[in-house]
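To the team - adenosine-5'-triphosphate complex, inputs and output below.
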Amino acid sequence: MASRTAGHLSGATPVLTAHGVGRAFGPSVVLAGVDLTIARGEVVALLGGSGSGKSTLLRILAGLDGEASGTSVVHGTAAVVFQEHRLLPWKRVADNVGLADRHRAWPTELSGGQAQRVAVARALVREPDLLLLDEPFGALDALTRLRMQILLRRLRAEHGFAALLVTHDVEEALLLADRILLLDDCRIAAELPVDLAPTRTPDDPAFGALRRHLLDRLGVPTP
Ligand SMILES: Nc1ncnc2c1ncn2[C@@H]1O[C@H](COP(=O)(O)OP(=O)(O)OP(=O)(O)O)[C@@H](O)[C@H]1O
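Output:
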């Protein structure tokens, strides 16, 4: 597996290119022949059933899996945010992020939502070209999750980073992504552009139609 980071290239260059990515754990094949390109500034959501290989693919793209086959190149810099914040408990919050210390709190003193905000700040402070987000809000309560989704939208509008967002949450994908990929049967089985009005409210009929379509593809019955 050649997973590497290339230098900063021209604007037309995608921020991520992956070809023929494969991964097996013993006899169990999880990914086979996955091709993926993410344009600069594009937010792509990766949906799929539990165990379909979403986190495995994200780890490969992040260069955290040395056992995969195929090639994956980030054209620029990438930063990863996981479901658990993974802050360093022996460092104060500001030291975790690398910012001037104004609040002087330890990560253990933070709520889940606060800790995840710090994790996002830590990822963004280096101004990455690509954010790799693995269920970043999956452990948060519904209200905090919505706040974080709105925050991520705002940050993306301000900073213009590209992102790959692994999520179980169809509405989260529809709220945040420009394009949705469905991972099934070891490969990217479907790809949908999210062509919605900028507000992306769930009561928009086009939002509802896409939501139903995705749930149907994921095998979730809708009323
Ligand atoms: N280190 C590992 N050793 C053995 N099997 C693994 C390992 N990591 C992942 N797997 C297996 O690979 C498959 C895909 O796992 P992965 O975590 O990528 O799925 P996922 O789509 O992210 O699932 P979920 O949505 O439930 O988090 C699963 O069957 C899992 O058991």
